[in-house]
Write a structure and sequence with these properties.
The complex is a heterodimer.
Chain A lengths: L3 E10 L2 E11 L4 E5 L6 H8 L7 E6 L2 E2 L5 H6 L2 E3 L12 H6 L10 H6 L2 H21 L14 H14 L4 E5 L7 H16 L3 E5 L3 H7 L2 E6 L2 E6 L1 H4 L3 H8 L5 H12 L2
Parallel strand pairs in A: 3-8, 3-9, 6-7, 7-8
Antiparallel strand pairs in A: 1-2, 1-4, 4-5, 9-10
Chain B lengths: L50 H7 L2 H16 L3 H26 L8 H18 L7 H19 L4 H21 L9 E2 L12 H23 L2 H11 L1 H6 L4 H27 L1 E2 L6 H14 L4 H17 L7 H15 L13 H4 L10 H9 L1
Antiparallel strand pairs in B: 1-2
Classes of the chains: A alpha/beta, B mainly alpha.
Chain lengths: 268, 381
């Protein structure tokens, strides 16, 4: 049984069908990419699965538990973590504090210890700080950890967001366009980081437009168009599927365009 | 040159899952001194705190303020001065309580005087009706303010910012108007003859001042400590971005409710002291102006900053007394001063410190024993 099972999700905004019977799965420890043209419903799918949107119908099961329509916090409690398309960090807080947010679910503190600053309070705080440092090391943050997160450059902010999501110690991590806005060097580091996250047993689902990156790291690729799954399989298989090429370039493409499209999807 | 991002490799070129960090420390071996040049804690561009800033951030400032407050009656101990000083101390407690709601959690509450009223009335009525000392009513006051916080907060805290402000404003007025119209609260004239803290008439003003300072000092300390806990961080996360906080498993509504209830308790306990000081309470004491003044103290001092809010509260409560020379114009002058401060220093006079201390910014020598991989396994086990 897969870790995440999404079945027949439907979601409409007014008259627009964002998701139209979408189904896909993410297995334990698997790296799955969701790709598709703009407006295909990738982020809507993420938001439904992580509880930010309530689907009109369909089911989302995480580890065999039906979580459809549960709140984002409730779903996070089961072991799901995510980043956002545009990093949503706590801008007026320090970098360390941002990562400490990830420890909220497993940290226990008693009110008595907090008010009296008992040794136990200091131990828990030290533990949280150490964890935050550990995850910042893990994502390879360069820059000032003690200062405000909004003072960091964009690429580093994305790292902080991933560190925060990892500090929750998720079993399934959603990354929404992790490579967007990264330069070449940062992109290479991201590939490496995703591999290391996967190596610790965390399943990953990502939305990404960078086809080279998708083909390089994904074990499976799910292609969306008009809120539906049009292809699902290993990268090599998906990129030669005619419907995928059609979705990216439209119908009535001649052979030379088709060849160019294959190049795009292959990530050449 | 080692790339700090490259993980240590396992035997087959796969990332070694049990490596704790990218320095390649073998599991179990003591961590070597870390060559941290690649990930500096303090970049060259970081501003160093000036001596003045360091003084303002030091822990000693709290002790200095407490000593000053305790020594003040030795300098000036007229009944009028003691009365003003006790009032200022109570105002500090209110401001620190509202700071939990507004400063830490970012909830704009325009009806904070309601909890002040609930505390004052609850303790006053119980003490008179049951003929018990005011101190004995404190447990009941705690229960009633928590319930009031839950009842008012649970439905309203689902609203965002400006809607919340209007609804809390409404609740503040509802409490005041209810107190004006109920028989048990003495109607418009309120209740009087509230016994002292120990029941035997009003407490000596100097002693009462010292008791108030003691209680307020604890209130300030506890509020600040709550702000530095797991819950306090959750308040700030929700203030900064509710959705991102929810994605980390924080339940925004519950966390906001906790802030609101904590604020209610602080306000209610200040109300008990207020009743004891005046030995009478009436609805006129809990007008919107009170809520606005407390909020002003929080904003003027610096939202979320404990020393700032304490200083702001002292400034706001003493300003009308110090501006007595200008008589009829004092609220006008007061208003102009506030506008000037807000224009020149919108973050408040003494803003919240946002940098981590050197101690937390540095990695501790005792690193977490788990590895990213092992903690993840531990969690899923």
């Amino acid at each position: 049984m897969s870790l995440l099972e999404v079945e027949d999700l439907r979601l409409t905004f007014g008259g627009v069908r964002a998701l139209d019977g979408l189904s896909f799965t993410v297995g334990h420890g698997e790296i799955v990419s969701l790709i598709g043209p703009n407006g295909a419903g990738k982020t809507s799918a993420f938001n439904c699965v992580t509880g930010f949107y309530r689907p009109d119908s369909g089911t989302v099961r995480f580890d065999a538990v039906d979580v459809t329509g549960r709140s984002p916090a409730a779903i996070a409690q089961l072991g799901v973590s995510r980043t956002f398309q545009n990093p949503r960090l706590f801008g007026e807080l320090s970098v360390l504090d941002n990562v400490r947010a990830g420890t909220h679910l497993w940290l226990r503190q008693r009110m008595v210890d907090v008010l009296l600053h008992t040794p136990r309070y200091h131990r828990t705080e030290q533990r949280v700080t150490d964890e935050a440092h550990m995850w910042l090391d893990f994502v390879g943050l360069r820059g000032d950890r003690a200062g405000l997160v909004r003072h960091l450059p964009y690429g580093e902010q994305r790292r902080v967001e991933i560190a925060r999501a990892l500090a929750r110690r998720p079993r399934l991590l959603f990354l929404d366009e992790p490579a967007a806005g990264l330069n070449h060097g940062e992109r290479t580091e991201l590939v490496d980081l995703i591999r290391r996250i996967s190596a610790q047993g965390t399943a990953l689902a990502l939305i990404e437009h960078d086809m080279g990156l998708v083909m390089e790291i994904s074990q499976r690729v799910v292609v969306l168009d008009f809120g539906r799954r049009i292809a699902d399989g290993p990268p090599a298989q998906v990129r030669s599927t005619p419907r995928v090429i059609e979705a990216y370039l439209g119908r009535d493409t001649d052979d030379s365009e088709l060849a160019a499209a294959r190049g795009v999807i292959r990530g050449d | 040159m080692s790339n700090p991002l490259r993980p240590p490799r396992g035997p087959h070129g796969a990332p070694a899952p049990d490596s704790r960090d990218h320095t390649g420390t073998p599991h179990g071996a003591p961590p070597p001194p870390r060559p941290d040049s690649a990930t500096p804690v303090e970049p060259s561009g970081a501003r160093r705190p000036t001596p003045a800033a360091r003084l303002l951030e030091s822990r000693h400032i709290g002790w200095a303020a407490l000593t000053a407050a305790l020594a003040l009656p030795l300098v000036i101990a007229t009944p009028y001065a003691l009365n003003v000083m006790t009032g200022a101390a109570l105002f500090v407690m209110l401001a620190v309580g509202l700071n939990i709601v507004v400063g830490y959690c970012g909830l704009l509450d325009l009806g904070y005087a309601a909890f002040f009223a609930v505390g004052a009335y609850t303790s006053g009525i119980l003490a008179i009706e049951l003929d018990i000392p005011l101190l004995a009513t404190v447990p009941a006051v705690l229960v009633v303010t928590v319930v009031a916080g839950l009842v008012i907060g649970a439905p309203t805290l689902r609203l965002r910012s400006d809607y919340l402000a209007i609804v809390t404003l409404g609740f503040g007025e509802i409490i005041r108007i209810t107190a004006t119209n109920l028989e048990i609260t003495g109607g418009p004239s309120g209740i009087y003859g509230i016994p002292g803290l120990w029941g035997d008439g009003p407490t000596d003003p100097a002693l009462f001042y010292y008791i108030t300072v003691g209680v307020v000092a604890l209130a300030v300390l506890f509020a600040a400590r709550l702000g530095r806990s797991r819950l306090g961080r959750a308040w700030r996360f929700v203030r900064e971005d509710e959705d991102a906080a929810a994605a980390m498993g924080i339940r925004p509504h519950r966390v906001k409710l906790a802030a609101y209830v904590a604020g209610a308790v602080w306000g209610g306990l200040a109300g008990v002291l207020f009743g004891a000081q005046l030995s009478a309470v009436s609805p006129a004491s809990f007008t919107f102006l009170w809520s606005a003044l407390v909020l002003m103290a929080v904003v003027l001092g610096g939202m979320g900053s404990t020393p700032g809010v304490v200083a702001g509260a002292i400034a706001i409560s003493l300003a009308p007394e110090l501006l007595r020379q200008v008589q009829d114009y004092r609220f006008f002058v007061f208003g102009v001063l506030l506008i000037v401060v807000m224009v020149l220093r919108p973050q408040g006079l003494w803003p919240q410190r946002t940098r981590e201390s050197a101690r937390t910014a540095a990695r501790s020598s005792a690193r977490p024993t788990g590895t990213p991989a092992s903690v993840a396994r531990e969690e899923s086990a």
